[in-house]
Amino acid sequence: MTKIGIPRALLYYQYYPMWKTFFEELGAEVVVSPPTTQVMLSSGASRVVADTCLPVKVFLGHVLCLVGECDFMFIPAIRSVKRKIYNCSKLLGLPDMTKAVIPESPPILDIDIDVNKGRRDLYQAIYQLGRRFTWSPFKVRQASLAAWQAHLNYQQLMSRYGLTPPQAIERISGTPEAEPKTPSGNPTPNLGTIALIGHPYLLYDEHINYRLVHWLEQAHYKVLTPEMLTAEELESATARLVGRARWTYEDDVVGAGEHYLESGVDGVIGIMTFGCGPDSLMMDMVRRRAAKLRATAFMSLTLEEHTAKTGVVTRLEAFLDMISRRKRRQAEVCV
């Protein structure tokens, strides 16, 4: 059986159920790289120049981890998934970059996704990918329809039940995405609600963000993320703040930030990486909105490969302490 390698990085948390369904419907076996480690990050960073952004270094480390474990590597070039909205350059050139810096990689399946070219080109790109496994257009069509339905079910599962992508993937596949939590004997009431905004490859990679979601939950805060909102809620919030979106996945930052600032959560934390142009602009829009509303505490965390856990935890503790003091003052005013 043909083995398809899928790196657990970048767009994995957005599209993995869809990709897995497509290849399995065509009779292939999907192999996923393990969670990120420091060895992966270091090996990926060693293949590119220092200015390359952290998510790409992590991705290349995952590709290296899959070398020798699969027959093909699936690395799509996703240019656009909405009309007149384009993706970051790192995702447009990812297949070519991987071929250049990891020559020992298995053959790369580099489908080009760009809805601006029209449906005909999109269907042809999907068929060209599927014909590596079958010459039957009917089978490719059936696989693509099953994959799209799996994607819709995945999104609905997260927004309806308030699940993060790792939790939803675990529920779908039955394979644990993270370490199991240790149940406590006496449940502690939540001290508040914190919304995290940012791209999934930053929010759910527990190595580069030092288990941020788990840390907040251990501090007895309820955590909300962009995937827990519907597409309509994200698009409406994005339109209120910036009008028309310019970048693909802008909803992860701008839409989620605007929605949660208006919803009355106790705090919003924005996560981005050093040197990311689109993210720095989008996060600044959310910061200015938070400063204007003055009702919800906002903090941004910038991650890069030399970020220390101590610094992250210190800033988080100070942020939560500020929220706690603000809530005490509000309670005293009400009394």
Total helix count?
Answer: 14
Provide the CATH topology of the largest domain: Rossmann fold
Unreliable residue stretches: 182-186
Count the domains: 2
Helix content: 40-55%
CATH architecture of the largest domain: 3-Layer(aba) Sandwich
- Termini separation comes to 69 Å
What profile does the largest beta sheet have? Answer: 4 strands, parallel
Q: In angstroms, what is the radius of gyration?
A: 21 Å
The best one-word shape is globular
User: How are the strands of the largest sheet arranged?
Assistant: 2-1-3-5
Overall SS class = alpha/beta
How many DSSP-defined strands? Answer: 10
Name of the CATH class of the largest domain: Alpha Beta
What is the mean pLDDT?
87
Sequence of secondary-structure elements = EHEHHEEHHEEHHHEHHEHHEHEH
Strand content: 5-15%
Describe this protein with a few key phrases.
335 residues, alpha/beta, Rossmann fold, 2 domains, four-stranded parallel sheet, 14 helices, 10 strands, 50% helix
Word description of this protein:
The radius of gyration is 21 Å and the shape is globular. Helix 1 packs parallel to helix 8 and helix 11 crosses helix 12. The chain has a 4-stranded parallel β-sheet with strand order 2-1-3-5, covered by helices on one side. The chain has a 4-stranded parallel β-sheet with strand order 8-7-9-10, with helices on both faces. Strands 4-6 form a two-stranded parallel ribbon. Helix 1 links the parallel strand 1 and strand 2. Helices cover about 50% and strands about 15% of the residues. It has helices spanning about 10-25, 40-45, 55-65, 90, 95-100, 120-130, 135-160, 165-175, 200-205, 210-220, 230-240, 255-265, 275-295, 310-335, and strands at about 5, 30, 70-75, 75-80, 110, 110-115, 190-195, 220-225, 265-275, 295-305. By secondary structure, it is an alpha/beta fold. Residues about 180-185 have low confidence and may be disordered. The protein folds into 2 domains: about 5-160, 3-Layer(aba) Sandwich (Rossmann fold); about 190-335, 3-Layer(aba) Sandwich (Rossmann fold).
